[in-house]
Design brief:
This protein is mainly β. The chain has a domain at 29-118: Distorted Sandwich (Deoxyuridine 5'-Triphosphate Nucleotidohydrolase, Chain A). It is 5% helix and 35% strand. The chain is built from one helix and eleven strands. The longest helix has 7 residues, at 65-71. The mean pLDDT is 94.
Length: 143
Amino acid sequence: MKMTIKIKRLSDDAKVPAYAHLGDAGMDLYAREGAVIKKGDMAMIPTGIAMEIPEGYVGLIWDKSGLATRHKLKTLAGVIDSGYRGEIQVGLFNFGRGNYAVEKHHKIAQLLIQKIEHAELEEVSELSDSSRGEGGFGSTGKH
């Protein structure tokens, strides 16, 4: 049985999220209005929609690959909890060399809906050994 997510337009001309292709993991999110993101700066881009994500699930906002690779735009603060009912906004940071103009109704990010687990936490004085141990960033690439 397919999950249903209720979508509410907060403005008449807001574009509802959509999957571009059958089998896509993420649905596209669209800008409600135009904006300019200056190089080295961040902007919150409104989508003009709110949604009701079922309990036990989360919405995760991820980059659009073309915007990330061609224009160096990175999404920020991309967790939408099931209890949130406000406008979905996309934080975009411009790592590019110039300003970037977001146009109204353009795809700005993608939203993945995923099941969540709530873990029971247990504080201990020691953790078990593993093959990796405390090896951090870059440790698996060393010979």
